[in-house]
Write a structure and sequence with these properties.
With 352 residues, the protein is mostly helical. It is built from 9 helices and 5 strands; from the N terminus they run E-E-H-H-H-H-H-H-H-E-E-H-E-H. The chain is elongated, with a radius of gyration of 27 Å. The chain starts with a strand and ends in a 9-residue tail after the last helix.
């Protein structure tokens, strides 16, 4: 049987064994291979775009080539973050290392904004002092080939990133697709330049591409900041509410204070669960283990669940379906609907 445990040493010399799930290992291998491929292909595509710039002198192609530098740097940084985020939790990082992916996404966004400055500089120069573009036809072939390569790579990164819940792969994939849009716009614009000989339009295209890059970089920085600040993730909360609803038992009288956040490929969840007050401790523990199994099955072993148990109080009687009940002081009126609005709120009887 394959050993999936990670062993670390405490300061006092005792060993700390932490299990690494097979799903976690599969996600790491997939992310690592894709990011390594993205880095290698990114270098090749960047070289093609710079070849197109060197033979044409086009500011628009240069803007596309500068963005490719960011692609390569971001892929290298992303590769490092994938390796680091795959490290299991240890004594110094009890919640794991997954948040490095938010730093990677923010770093990529900041580099994109930095590159936009250089793009605007070259574009404005071409507008004010238009220069003839030699060998433009040959340069267009380099740009077309690089754009097709980025399209294929970006779609692959998005597919794997969504499957493994990796913000780094998704960010890099979206960046590459935006690069494809930029390349397509540049290609169309340069065809117009080639057909009309209006070289000032080359600078206009570069500036328009720069605006698109600014929007992309801003979105990535905001997403990374939100992740580091553990901003609410509505899609994740809705997914968890659906999961809880599918596995709901009569003993689970209600849930409140639901919170959830992602750290790399892992999902951290905590909430308060109201159980019958006369339920033995061992049985209550069994209900928590049942929840843990449901979450592990749904998230492929990539979830950490913390449940705070609350005993039922008289105000819960109208939503409790347990019958017979010797402690009931009011009849059951209706079951509470479990959704993001109800489960993330407070229970007035327990949070006074």
């Amino acid at each position: 049987m394959e050993d999936n445990s990670f062993t670390a040493c405490r300061k006092d010399g005792d060993k700390l064994d932490i299990e690494i799930s097979p799903a976690h290992q599969d996600h790491f291998r997939a992310n690592f291979k894709v990011m390594l491929l993205a880095f290698a292909v990114g270098v090749i595509l960047m070289g093609m775009k710079f070849c197109g710039y060197w033979i044409t002198g086009s500011s628009a192609i240069l803007s596309d080539a500068l963005e490719s530098i960011i692609n390569v740097v971001a892929s290298g940084f992303g590769l490092g973050s994938v390796i680091l985020s795959a490290k299991p939790a240890d004594e110094s990082h009890p919640y794991g290392h997954g948040k490095i992916e938010f730093f990677s996404a923010g770093f990529e966004g900041a580099l994109i904004l930095f590159a936009a400055g250089g793009i605007f500089w070259e574009g404005v120069k071409q507008i004010l002092q238009p220069q003839e573009l030699p060998n433009l036809r040959n340069g267009l072939f380099f740009l077309l080939a690089a754009g097709a390569g980025n399209l294929a790579l970006g779609l692959m990164l998005l597919r794997v990133g969504k499957k493994t819940k990796s913000i780094v792969l998704e960010a890099d994939g979206k960046h590459l697709l935006s690069d494809v849009y930029t390349s397509a716009a540049v290609l169309v614009g340069l065809i117009v330049v080639y057909s009309t000989g209006w070289f000032r339009f080359d600078g206009i295209i570069a500036c328009v591409a720069g605006v698109n890059i600014v929007f992309l970089g801003t979105r990535l920085v905001r997403k990374a900041f939100g992740g580091l600040m553990q901003a609410a993730d509505p899609e994740l909360l809705d997914e968890i509410c659906d999961l809880l609803g599918k596995h709901k038992k009569d003993l689970w009288i209600d849930i409140h204070r639901l919170r959830a956040w992602r750290s790399g490929s892992r999902v951290h969840v905590d909430f308060h669960l109201i159980l019958p007050r006369e339920l033995p401790l061992e049985s209550a523990h069994g209900e928590v283990k049942s929840l843990e199994k449901a979450f592990d099955s749904h998230f492929g072993g990539m979830s950490d669940l913390l449940v705070h148990l609350d005993p039922c109080l008289d105000p819960e009687c109208p939503i409790c379906v347990i019958e017979p009940c010797d402690l009931r002081n009011d009849r059951m009126v209706h079951q509470r609907i479990w959704n993001r609005q109800t489960l993330t709120g407070k229970a007035s009887s327990h949070d006074r």
